[in-house]
């Protein structure tokens, strides 16, 4: 008797009101065919309905099963630009919680070991703290899933795991016993932890695979999920649509680490605002830095380092679990070429939480006078925190890298001087912000070094809040900086010019600047 079932039989296992946990990062380990079948069943019969959906990283498949009524509650690390879901949340048609990505991964691990939830300092003093919103994203979300607890006179947050009945996960190959390997995935992400959490709560684990083989043919060293915790295996019938490795690749052996490519790198960024910011941020690196680069402008830091010939001095890490190599951006976000290792997401966040990153560069959307930052929800836009809170509360040195204004900013660099041709429509430096995703208070408490790098100036966070410390050549504080801020920052008595090498077309000699060559 094998574990293989048809997709209808698998979906039959899901009942009204169940808690569903899904694995995934972008498309890695995303069981898209199962998601589509679940949504189709609901549309056809109205059941199963009122489910709780729990998910860790940005998952591109969720939009395939975003149907009003199918889910009544959505717990996530990131909303992955899923417009329909964001609308349901904004219109109070679904309850929703946004928790840090690493915390959710660790909640699964806690549940897998029969614990009530994850106890951690991650999220303290942010919107996940129950003294703020407790991670609740709208008015219909009222139940507190996060509690403030004190252990040995230290504050912690307890994130309680909801009841989970069904795991929907993906592997590459299953044998008849349900042993699962993931040889064609970019990383294991959270598949094992999701499965173990659900199993320990008495639920059922359903796995989508590409191949189904004899139990006598499995190589034990490749098995990620043992058959003893798998209840049903569904072999994908539409792998080219619904079992893609990334949106760009059906299967690329370099991305799954079986082969390596020579001469992979980054494109050279033209000398624009993004490159200026990336260059100034890169000046904060030190030799042999282990780094995490956030979404958006920070991704350019690795490109600048590579262009300057010191790319091999950085060890890049990605929240999906990858260490080393060259992150692949765009459609294959979350994967890497030539990575050294692919850790489980729980271990990657242990590594981050343990303070092992030398530096991180993260994006920003809104900043207040004290240096609190919002990236998770601004206006009607819900992005979600992703790994931002886990990383920004665990790393000693943080550079927030972004443009001074958003939406249409145009700049020009000529003769080593910066001028603003068109200001962005949205101000980012505001008297108060919608959500605190980075807490200046918490940061002060743990003694972090925090910089804000924009194309035209640099701020440092001091005990009194933001202080302007550097301005770009060609920029005037009164004309180009203060009018773009809805509060007045302190101005350093020792205000400096940003390094002129940043504003030159030629290489800036980054290696020498940071002490490598
Ligand atoms: C905050 C974030 C959106 C900034 O991205 P970026 O590319 O560096 O910066 P940009 O200023 O170009 O902003 C990107 C978009 O957000 C919009 N935006 C940024 N700040 C905004 C603000 N204060 N108000 C309204 N819109 C804003 C921009 O207009 C732009 O929108 P567009 O693409 O429609 O033009 C990005 O870093 C992010 O999504 N972070 C959240 C999750 C995260 O950091 N995860 C990584 C953890 S390791």
Main sheet summary? 8 strands, mixed
- Category from helices, strands and their pairing: alpha/beta
Nearest-integer average pLDDT = 96
Strand runs, count: 34
Ligands: coenzyme A
Beta-strand content: 25-35%
Figure out the total of helices. Answer: 13
Task: Supply database-style keywords.
20% helix, 517 residues, globular, alpha/beta, 8-stranded mixed β-sheet
Q: How would you explain this protein's 3D organization?
A:
The protein starts with 6 loop residues before the first helix and ends with a helix. Strand 3, helix 3 and strand 4 (95-98) form a beta-alpha-beta unit. It has 13 helices and 34 strands. An eight-stranded mixed beta sheet has the order 16-15-21-26-31-32-33-34. A seven-stranded parallel beta sheet has the order 4-3-2-1-8-11-14, sandwiched between helices. It is α/β, with parallel strands linked by helices and 517 residues long. It is 20% helix and 26% strand. Helix 4 crosses helix 5 (191-200) and helix 7 (273-282) packs across helix 8 (300-307). The model has no long low-confidence stretch (mean pLDDT 96). It binds coenzyme A. Residues 292, 294-297, 319, 362-366, 375, 378-379, 383, 386-388, 391, 402-403, 406-407, 426, 428 line the site of coenzyme A (COA).
């Amino acid at each position: 008797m094998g574990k293989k079932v048809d997709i209808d039989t698998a979906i039959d296992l899901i009942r009204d009101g169940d808690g569903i946990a899904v694995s995934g990062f972008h498309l890695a380990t995303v069981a898209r065919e199962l998601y589509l079948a679940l949504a189709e069943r609901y549309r056809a019969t109205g059941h199963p309905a009122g489910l709780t959906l729990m998910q860790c990283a940005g998952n591109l498949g969720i939009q395939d099963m975003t149907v009003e009524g199918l889910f009544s509650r959505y717990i996530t690390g990131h909303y992955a630009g899923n417009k329909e879901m964001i609308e349901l949340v904004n219109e109070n048609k679904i309850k929703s919680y946004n928790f840090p990505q690493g915390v959710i991964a660790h909640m699964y691990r806690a549940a897998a070991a029969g614990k009530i939830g994850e106890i951690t300092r991650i999220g303290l003093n942010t919107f996940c703290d129950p003294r703020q919103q407790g991670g609740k994203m709208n008015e219909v979300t009222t139940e507190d899933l996060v509690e403030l607890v004190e252990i040995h006179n230290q504050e912690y947050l307890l994130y309680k795991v909801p009841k989970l009945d069904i795991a929907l996960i993906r592997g590459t190959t299953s044998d008849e016993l349900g042993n699962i390997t993931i040889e064609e995935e970019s990383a294991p992400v959270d598949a094992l932890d999701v499965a173990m959490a659900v199993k320990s709560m008495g639920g059922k684990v359903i796995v989508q695979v590409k191949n189904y083989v004899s139990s006598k043919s499995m190589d034990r060293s490749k098995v990620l999920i043992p058959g003893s915790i798998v209840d049903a295996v569904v072999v994908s019938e539409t792998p080219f649509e619904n079992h893609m490795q990334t949106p760009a690749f059906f299967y690329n052996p370099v991305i799954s680490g079986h082969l390596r490519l020579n001469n992979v790198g980054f494109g050279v960024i033209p000398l624009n605002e993004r490159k200026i910011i990336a260059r100034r941020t890169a000046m904060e690196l030190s030799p042999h830095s282990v780094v995490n680069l956030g979404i958006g402008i920070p991704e350019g830091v690795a490109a600048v380092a590579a262009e300057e010939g010191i790319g091999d001095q950085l060890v890049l890490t990605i929240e999906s679990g990858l260490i080393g190599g060259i992150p692949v951006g765009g459609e294959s976000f979350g994967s890497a070429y030539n990575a050294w290792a692919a850790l489980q997401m729980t271990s990657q966040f242990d590594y981050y939480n343990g303070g092992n990153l030398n530096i991180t560069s993260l994006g920003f959307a809104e900043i207040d006078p004290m240096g609190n930052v919002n990236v998770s929800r601004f206006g009607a836009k819900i992005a979600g925190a992703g790994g931002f809170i886990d990383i920004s509360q665990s790393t000693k040195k943080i550079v927030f890298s972004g443009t001074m204004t958003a939406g249409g900013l145009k700049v020009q660099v000529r003769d080593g001087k910066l001028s603003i041709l068109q200001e962005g429509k949205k101000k980012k430096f505001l008297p108060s912000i919608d959500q605190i995703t980075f807490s200046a208070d918490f940061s002060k408490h743990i003694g972090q070094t925090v910089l804000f790098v924009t194309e035209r100036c640099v701020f440092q966070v001091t005990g009194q809040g933001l202080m302007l410390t550097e301005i770009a050549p060609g920029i005037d504080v009164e004309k180009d900086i203060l009018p773009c801020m809805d509060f007045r920052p302190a101005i350093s008595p020792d205000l400096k010019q940003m390094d002129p090498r940043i504003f030159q077309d030629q290489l800036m000699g980054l290696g020498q600047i940071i002490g490598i060559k």
